[in-house]
Amino acid sequence: MVKKFIIFLLIFLPSASLTIFIPWVNQIEPILFGLPFLHFWLFLWILLSPVCVWAVYHLQKSQGGIE
């Protein structure tokens, strides 16, 4: 049950962070690595999304769901 919840979070988190949370991060300040915060947030999640997919793959593989 816990693994299913973790898989759900790993699937939901990238899509939610790129769509639902945009109004809260849509600001210029602070500037991180020379980028406005919104651009940094989007770039961060573009990099983190494949990591989440990889984690879901390995969790399902350990359960025997992928052959």
UniProtKB/TrEMBL annotation:
<keyword id="KW-0812">Transmembrane</keyword>
<keyword id="KW-1133">Transmembrane helix</keyword>
<dbReference type="InterPro" id="IPR021741">
    <property type="entry name" value="DUF3311"/>
</dbReference>
<feature type="transmembrane region" description="Helical">
    <location>
        <begin position="37"/>
        <end position="57"/>
    </location>
</feature>
<protein>
    <recommendedName>
        <fullName>DUF3311 domain-containing protein</fullName>
    </recommendedName>
</protein>
<feature type="transmembrane region" description="Helical">
    <location>
        <begin position="5"/>
        <end position="25"/>
    </location>
</feature>
<keyword id="KW-0472">Membrane</keyword>
<dbReference type="Pfam" id="PF11755">
    <property type="entry name" value="DUF3311"/>
</dbReference>
